[in-house]
Every structure is written in structure tokens, then in C-alpha cells.
User: Fold this.
Amino acid sequence: MKKIIFITCLVFVHLLGIRAQDKHTIRPLTPQEVSQRLLPKYAPLALMPLTQLDYENIKSVREKEKQSTIPLLTNADSVEITYRNVPGLKAGDPDIPVRIYKPKYITTAPIFLWFHGGGFVYGNLNGDHKHCANMAIRGKVVVISVDYRLAPEHPYPAAVHDAYAVFLWSIKNAKNFQGDTTRIGLGGGSAGAGVAGSMTLLNRERKGPKIALQALFFPPADIDTNHVSVRELWQIPGVKGADIPYLLKLYIGKDYASNIPKNVLPGMTDNFSQLPPTYIATCGVDPLRDGGLDLGVKLIKAGIPVELHNFPGYPHGLLPDRVFPELYSFMYEYFYKPIK
Assistant:
């Protein structure tokens, strides 16, 4: 009996050693290796200088965003755009600026909330202006783009509370922009996908109104920095693995790893049931790739309808044009086709 226990302990220690060794043997890829994984048209991006992400860089990006103008639309004659300031979720919360895109040729349409990216620390309504107009027209939905509060001045859950405030407001005021409250979805890119997925978890916890679907583009699904994609792409131009711990500290707090708030990211839950049909797109050469794929698999195993696509050769934030017809098809399935 003692011999069996001893052998079992040896095997356990050996397995732990293999697991630890695997984590340490995941080395960062060289710029040349990264360029080989990218599509030829994006390969030169791997050889660009690295960006030093710090608060000075964040302030610089924000200043440039403030100076930006609203992009001109080539399809402006097909969409009606209005601006609103939505009351915050709690007393004392500031108003939340939103931009509403309504297709001119549709009387009543589903509502789709959109949250921009920017690492939770920058980004504004102008960055996704053309994208939101296109979604409204081609997806036949009323898009509400949300200018949520940013970290580190407003850490979690400020952004998610802003998202939820707009979600509830859109249902209450839907008749003012011909929105259909029985068909409401939400989505976002990068940090915006994190906000959208987190808000979905909050809505489930509060037993709130039904969400018909969510669309998460290259989402920050969890806080695990041991994913292969994070480690291999630790030092690359653009969004890199080394940025993730820094951004999580700004968004969640310095002790985020030991004090994880509930529902903070879409994959940070022990219950993936009773969530809406989900579209997930990940970029093949993106530190966030593996977390997004892992989220998709967990949702599938929980019985959630999931369309999960990884696009090889694409860096963070870039996707092929075919992703948008796929998204509109997904919207059609869960907005317009009755589920029997």
C-alpha cells in the first residue's frame, strides 16, 4: 500500500513538472517568425517598432482622439444619426453619450448595442462610426454606439454599468427610434467585446430583459496570461501579450489576479448556461486569440448556440470582409427567424 502511494506521488509530481515546464518552454516568437504567421499583406507589421504602453502613451492617444473629426459616410443618405445623453446607472454617475444609427428605409428594427475597443483606456464614438453605419444599413438594425467611461480614472465596473444603463434605457425609449424591444442584441470589438460579454453576465445575474444575441470580436475573455497566444506574441508591434497585465491592472486593479471581481470578463464565470446565442471572431496572430477560442468552446459545451471563427494570418483588430456578411446572417437567424 505504501509503495502504491509513493508511486502515485511520484507520478503526480512528474505531471506537475511537465506542466510547469510546458509553460516555461513557450517562448516569444521573433519578428521574423511573427511575419511568417501573418498574411503576406500584413507581414511588414511584424517588423515595425514596438509601442511602449504607459500612461503617457494613453494620454497621447486620447488627445489625438479628441482632435479627430467624425468620418464622412458614403452611405449617409441611407441612415439617420442622432445623439443622446443617457442617464448613468447609479445616482451620481455621469450621463453616457450615445450615437444612434437608424436605417431610413425600415420602420421598426431590432436594437443592437455596440461598444468600441481601446484596451478599456481609450477609444471613442468616432473610431467605429463607419462600421456602425454599415451595421445599421446592412444588418437592418438600430445600432446604439456607447461612449462608456474609461480606466484608469473609471475602473471596472464603470464601463459595464454604463453599458447596462444604455441597455435598459434603449428598451424604455425604443419607440423614440423605432426599436423593437423583443429583439435586442449587443456586441463590440476588443475591450468593447469584453464590456459586452460582461454586461450579458450582469444581466443574467439580475434576471434582466432577454438578450437575443451577442457578437464578440477578438474579445479579452479572461485574465490568463499563460495562453500560448499570449506567451508567443509577448513582444510584437501593436497589441502585445506584455500589454495585457498592465491593462488589466488599470481596468480591474493592481491585485486583479488575487481578487477577481465577479463577471469582470465574458469568460470569468463558472456558469456558461442561460446566455444568448453568441458570434465570436478571433484573429490568428493575436494575443487574445486563445482566450476567445476557449470562451467559445465553453459556451458550446454549455449548450449555447455559438458561431466561432478564427481567421488565420490576421493581427489583432483586423478581419476579412467576409466576417460582416456572416455577422448579418447570424443576426438574421436570431433576430428574424422564430425559434420553434
